[in-house]
Amino acid sequence: MTTTERPERSVPKPVFTDAEAGAHEFPDSGASARRYNYYNSINASRTHYEDVTVDVQPDPRHYLSQGWIYGFADGSARYPLTWTKLKAVGRGSARARALPRLRRQGLRVCPPTAWHEFRDPNEEWELTFYRYNANVVRQVNQNIENARYAKAFEQWTPNWIQFVERNVGAWMHIEHTLGLYVFAACNRSGPTNMHNTAMAYTACHKIRFAQDLALYNLTLTEEIEGFDGTAHLEAWNSDPEWQASGRSHEALTAVDDDWGESIFATNVVFEPLLRELFRSNLVMQAAAGNGDFVTPTVMGAAEFDFAQRDLRWTQACFGPLTQDKEFADYNKDLMQGWLSHWVPQAIEAARVLQPIWSLPDAKPPRFEDSLDRAKSRFSGIVTDLGLSVPKELSQ
């Protein structure tokens, strides 16, 4: 059989015009590049936290001149600045100085640059989050295991056993509610990825602590004869002392479309006036006298979460807004209104809890002394934010 040779086929040759994606080499495009240069660091040098956090969330008001690539069915774009009543242009920033010119050009919303100036002082990102929480869980578990081996739970007084099964157990419901329905619900509403990342990790702190309490409750059920691991459900649903706390925390989950008010009310108002009051001024003060050296280590992890991490980023978020070049007075009036609305609810919930101060055999400091400490702590936080202590605090 004979074969005939085909003539050579004519195929258009590719012509590279350097218009294809990735054709242009930027200073930070190479494999040796270790830092991005598209954002301005607030420090002398860029940090790893900034590299993986800053401007990860797109914002056409800042970059991306082509606009949002997706939006809602009603036509509104993602991450609108109207998702909080707070406003910001910065404290003397270039964008703040340019505000009159920008308004003459028809800008109808406050420029976003000031929001992009926010940085979490904890520099929390995925790696540091896992390391921190792994260390906390490891420490808590080691403390509990050591107590089991030492038979430390046998030293608990009978009334303290009942106090822990009902009231410490009930606390997990509050932490779960805040983590899942306040912080996790708000973590896609902030104007920048830096805000949303901080809210997401605070949600994880709360959910982790709720889980710590749930697992601790199971351990106590195994270790202490007669310990009722389901008593917290009845206490949370039926005990009069917990009903005001339940209502107030449900109210936090129902704030009308304002992530700023939700976070402000939770971390600035309720955390010092109610949650630190219970954790630090009741449980951690009374435990040792009732033979319990374990529960304070579990509660102390949550105290550190707030005092050394969550409060720091909250102050960095709201503090500059009271010094804003354009909207300082507006923001102060707004936050003062939030204080007047939420402080009475926190004080009411705290006072309704007063009867449980008398339950342990070895009593903690007087309720009024504990509440005064909580009020002093709250007043310091409010003052540091540049706000006035509300008159409702005297209730």
TrEMBL record:
Chain spans, region Disordered: 1-28
Keyword Oxidoreductase: yes
One Pfam family linked to the record: Phenol_Hydrox
Record's catalysed reaction(s): propane + NADH + O2 + H(+) = propan-2-ol + NAD(+) + H2O
Enzyme class, first EC level, given as a word: oxidoreductase
Keyword Oxidoreductase applies: yes
Stored CDD domains: AAMH_B
Biased composition (Basic and acidic residues): 1-11
GO molecular function: oxidoreductase activity, acting on paired donors, with incorporation or reduction of molecular oxygen, NAD(P)H as one donor, and incorporation of one atom of oxygen
Entry EC number(s): 1.14.13.227
Ranges that cross the membrane: none
Keywords: Monooxygenase, Oxidoreductase
Protein name, as recorded: propane 2-monooxygenase
Organism: Pseudonocardia sp. TY-7
